[in-house]
Write a structure and sequence with these properties.
The protein is an alpha/beta fold. The chain is built from 15 helices and eight strands. The strands form two sheets. The protein has a six-stranded parallel sheet. It has a two-stranded antiparallel sheet with strand order 6-7. The chain is globular and about 65 Å long.
Length: 387
Amino acid sequence: MLNFNYSIPTRVFFGKDKINTLSENIKEYGNKILLVYGGGSIKKTGLYDDIVKIFKNDHIKYFELEGVKPNPRIDTVRKGIQICKENDIDLVLAVGGGSVIDASKVIAAGVHYDGDAWDIVLDPRKIYKALPIATILTLAATGSEMDAGAVITNPETKQKLGTGSPNIFPKFSILDPTYTFSVPKNQTAAGVVDIMSHVFEVYFSKTNEAYLQNRMAEAVLKTCINYGPKVMSEPENYEARANLMWAGSLAINGLLAYGKETEWSAHEIEHELSAYYDITHGVGLAILFPYWMEYVLSEDTVDKFVEYGINVWDIDKTKDKFEIAKSSIEKTRDFFNSLDMPSTLSDVDIDDKHLDEMAKGAVARGTLGSFKALEKEDVFKIYQMSL
């Protein structure tokens, strides 16, 4: 196991009615809030009214930034930074899923950066300070409520890039599974895929000695496999929603990755799809990940797929190791299909027009991964397999 420093500083308030902790926690940081949210679903569900009522009752002054889109745009971030600077904001409160939270993180960091906000996406070393960030989660998927990363899209340059800093860990996050009851089936399914994909990126690793982390990773995967179909058919199943919500946080808060080399190849490959075609992140991952698995399967990597197949999918361990490995990939694809996720790029109207540019963009920061290192040509082949 590799050396690591453990730090997950976000306080989590999990369960029904935990919004009652909102005011007291906000007031630890100030009294002027930027409320950030997306397309208005929180108004339809009544969550917005609940938050505003709390603000008014406890004399918390708030300003709003609404309309954050999936694959959050840098221009929205710039707008949020301007509001914060003009109104001397004390804390940024993100209410929504990963896109809203990611935008809020970069807004909070951008307030303390003199240049353009895109600079701190390109180079996270420039994030030296940030406003306090808090979240109220409404979608189990990205885990952004409990990690130090953010992904922002620049439509002008056709780039979707990750950035991160310990300074942008949320101070606290409220996770009430009932807030996810109204999430549509397609978004729920994409969220399940996203959670599993985060686990894959740290599970498929050359670090073989992290036994504990691997078993925890398998538990998160089996949780998604168990509860994903249930929540699709029973959207108000509290047990299912709660388990998926907590799985989303644990998948990417660092716990499963400590002491390991990690991958993140498929995410970089998918980010190019989102940048060019603005598709849902989980949808892109559902298409790409089984093809990535097929591509990286070799004599050098087969044992990890065997471990995955036996421990996660309960495949007969007496079978040939390549048979187990290939079956595990097939079961992964079959599970995604059972959630009504697409299997090919053509299913979402993506053709081969931009494959070369996307492959080039995916490796713009260098070779992808180490489980099987991928160059531009490798990424291009994975895109071709996915057509």
